[in-house]
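not sure who needs this but someone in the group chat was asking about ABM domain-containing protein from Novispirillum itersonii so here u go. i didnt clean anything up, its just raw.
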Amino acid sequence: MDPVAHAVELSTFRARAGVSPAEIETAYTRIRQEYMPRQPGVIRHDWFCRADGVWVDLLVADSLAAAHQACAGWFDHPATQALMALMEPGSPQMGFWVPGPMPEFLTGG
C-alpha cells in the first residue's frame, strides 16, 4: 500500500443472478473514468472477484474524510448507480479502516 495512504474503504457484494463478470467490469470501468477522477484524496480504486463470486471493492485515500466523501457521493452518480443495479440486494457490506497499532492478539503481547 502507498505509504501516504491513511484510510481504506473495503466493500464486498454479490452480483444479481444472471449478471456476468463482464457487466461488472464494464460498470467499474465507467466508475474509474467518470466518478473517481472527481474524488479528491482518492489514491487508488480497485476491484477483485473471489472464486465464490463475491466482489471486493477497495478504495485507498489520503484521509478518512476523503474516503467517506468518495463513498457519500456513491449513491447519487449515474456511473455508480449502474453498478449498484447489478448488485444482489442485501449483499453489499462496507467498512473503513485507518492505520493503528498492531492488536495484541497478533503481536503475542
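also Residues 16 and 58 are 20 Å apart (CA to CA). if thats useful
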